[in-house]
Amino acid sequence: TTTTERHLYDVVVIGAGGAGLRAAIEARLAGKRTAIISKSLFGKAHTVMAEGGAAAAMGNVNSRDNWMVHFRDTMRGGKFLNNFRMAELHAKEAPERIWELETYGALFDRTKDGRISQRNFGGHEYPRLAHVGDRTGLELIRTLQQKIVSLQQEDFAETGSYDSRIRVFQETTITELLLDGDRIAGAFGYYRDSGEFLLFEAPAVVLATGGVGRSYKVTSNSWEYTGDGHALALRAGATLINMEFLQFHPTGMVWPPSVKGILVTESVRGDGGVLRNSEQKRFMFDYVPDVFRKQYAETEEEADRWYDDPDNNRRPPELLPRDEVARAINSEVKAGRGSPAGGVFLDIASRLPAEQIVRRLPSMHHQFKELADVDITKEPMEVGPTCHYVMGGVEVDPDSGAAFGTVLGLFAAGEVSGGMHGSNRLGGNSLSDLLVFGKRAGEHAAAYVDTLGKRPKPDRVDVAAAAEVALAPLTRSGGENPYTLQQDLQAVMGDLVGIIRREGELTDALKRLHELRLRVANVAAGGGGRRYNPGWHLALDLRNMLVVSECTAKAALEREESRGGHTREDFPGMSPQWRRINLVCSLDETGAVHLERKPVPAMRPELLDLFDRSELSKYMTDEELGEE
Ligand code: FAD
């Protein structure tokens, strides 16, 4: 059957990670009937996997820290391509959002005097990551879910129903957004277990669907991350920015092959771990770029002293931003100085007593023991780059999270949104981003609903069309196998649009993506019906992965410079002219990807004044600096 269950809400939040839950809490607090939809089980999202912590300039461990230092670090990490307003709001509001979590019941690790402890991480000048061992994301999700349950209990006391104002639809995938003219009118999707359809009628949608990593074979991302929110936004008339910037985390597992890509947290380096090549050399000293030279130690002795005396020594180069470390590892392996499994060595065993390693990095200890039969208190780990995070995403208004483009009533927060992190995200800045912008998106989605006179209504024709598209892979016989298509897509993206990019390969990638698009249009689920059918689910995800990959490849070809998570072998330098340009993706009427150049908003003078001119001159044109 093609019956479609119908639900009415004020705000529909797609995604139950940190951004989605925080947005839903805020929408409900504003009195809106709110639905939370999650493709996976409730509680299973990337956010739960986050290990290191949430960055917030609380100044608990080093009192010199404040929002201005955090803002500076974030802009530097993103190589000044960040939306400055987002970076400003994030740095200013993150501490409040972390403290607020405590009022929801979060228990962070403590300093000796009982304050929230903060740990060092790459690119952050001071210890700044609030954390719970290496299981911070779990605490974040646990607390946000707990808050939702408590709100549901309040609603029960008042209305007799737990679901009256906030309801969770888990294992439910949204496949299409619905419009009424240029306004959001709802969302269409299906229950993954029964395959039955659902229609949400709602005037406001918050996208909080996370990332796109599954378009790459070696990735820290799990199966849900097929770029659905990015693609839903595009198809609804919104725009994506800077999709060329992907973060390859320097340390994923490389052995055994079955777990290749699984993350090894940066906390290992934050807590003293060092990278060595096959000659046992701490090679990162050879890879400190000019723009960072002043902040990083030149000798092992100085680097080692920094852990105990950060005021009088400079940081170890292992704690450079991720893009730098990933490229360095890539170069070492290419030069033949890699580990047996094609990575490099990450050594914590010789740096900390075993007992401390187990206490500070319990998940890593467990992960290596279980998956690789390596005891990290005794032996080094083998690690290499893994596709981890997408800096690009839905182009949004920085204050409200409202999507740009031609659509009204669409909001985005968290990894699916773009701008905040510029060309490269600092570790720890995602969990804080989710809280800051999740709250803002929920608040503004609720406020938007209040401005509407008449509720937009989905068009029946559009609902029928969405159902037809969803059923097509089931009715088609003899079509393409979705698993083969995914492998082919991953090969194109990994081989031709990976860490190091070249014009010829990118052109080739676009040609192959075009061919894949035709094949994906002919994908068949290969039997199995609608009841929990993973082949069907993947068949539907593929068209999202494909359009998002096209945006990435197109923008990567267009941007003729190297910056953050985009490295062009044929254009190795950073260009001040390119720093002023955002690449914006949209779909035209035929569904083809269209790319446009837009100026990066110029930083307000008082924010510019937070930097030395000599530093700014490394990034900006004379014209920009002269205008100041
Ligand atoms: P997610 O938490 O990814 O949630 C997305 C949600 O959307 C899920 O519920 C998913 O089911 C749902 N969804 C997706 N598509 C659909 C659809 N079509 N229909 C319905 N639902 C859908 N960042 C840090 O700051 N610090 C860290 O220490 C850290 N460690 C990390 C460790 C790992 C292993 C990984 C993978 C990431 C880490 N990150 C870290 C990054 C950070 O965890 C993520 O960027 C962040 O959690 C993203 O949160 P989100 O709320 O945007 O989305």
UniProtKB/TrEMBL annotation:
The active site is at 322 (proton acceptor). Keywords: FAD, Flavoprotein, Oxidoreductase. Substrate binds at residues 249, 265, 388, 425. Residues 304-321 have a biased composition (Basic and acidic residues). Residues 10-431 form the FAD-dependent oxidoreductase 2 FAD-binding domain. Residues 487-601 form the Fumarate reductase/succinate dehydrogenase flavoprotein-like C-terminal domain. InterPro entries: FAD-dep_OxRdtase_2_FAD-bd, FAD/NAD-bd_sf, Fum_R/Succ_DH_flav-like_C_sf, Fum_Rdtase/Succ_DH_flav-like_C, SdhA/FrdA/AprA, Succ_DH/fumarate_Rdtase_cat_sf. FAD binds at residues 15-20, 38-53, 228, 415, 430-431. Its cofactor is FAD. One of its GO terms (molecular function) is steroid dehydrogenase activity, acting on the CH-CH group of donors. Residues 302-321 are annotated as: Disordered. It comes from the Bacteria. PANTHER family: SUCCINATE DEHYDROGENASE 2 FLAVOPROTEIN SUBUNIT, SUCCINATE DEHYDROGENASE [UBIQUINONE] FLAVOPROTEIN SUBUNIT, MITOCHONDRIAL. This is Succinate dehydrogenase flavoprotein subunit. The gene is sdhA_2.
